[in-house]
Amino acid sequence: MDRKVKTGAWLLVLAAAVPVGVQAQGKVEASVGADLVSGYIWRGQDLGNVSIQPSASISYRGFSLSGWGSVGFEKEDTKEFDLTFGYAHKGFSVSVTDYWFNSGPGYFHYGSTNTSHVFEVQVGYDFGLLALNWYTNFAGNDGVNKDGDRAYSSYLSVVAPFKLGGLDWTAGIGATPWANTFYNGGASGFEVCDISVGVSKEIGITDSFSLPLFAKFTWNPATEGAYFVGGISF
């Protein structure tokens, strides 16, 4: 679910890893990569321990189709498989993601009350100095409100990149705009649930190959959680 130390499922697949790229006729681009992370923290929520998180994508003229997964090293960790279809032009981006988890019904169960899929739409704009994104669940096992009705559980984020000490940093804040059971255990009303600071650095292995190392501090005021995770991209 793009539930890792970067911002957003679709942006994560396209930008988080250092991929092996392939081009066909100078138009179609493809990439594949994987991250090894010390913990799986997504939008201020703790979703697992040490995990390997592969990704792959193909894009053409702004359109992209990407896959992302997470497999924990511990038996009890939930496995995840996400598919995202998106479009980006300059700073604008929009996408639809199908998140699936193996902790419930099998993959091909799509009933409104019998599914482990969550469907989400994203829209955002990257202004350079900061990026704004809005995410809303619109189908699947997406959470309910206090009356037991579909909550259209949503999340909004603001992320700003900056440089400090010769390294690349990001600062972000995320919040849920209304009550739902999908985030923060059903906390009521508007809740800030993700305050984060991340940093990345390239580690040289040879003259032509390097590994990106990244780390992120995250605080969730809604649940009083605090996390520090790190990882390497391949």
UniProtKB/TrEMBL annotation:
Swiss-Prot/TrEMBL keywords: Signal
Domain of life of the source: Bacteria
According to the record, the signal peptide region is 1-24
Annotated protein name in UniProt: FrrB
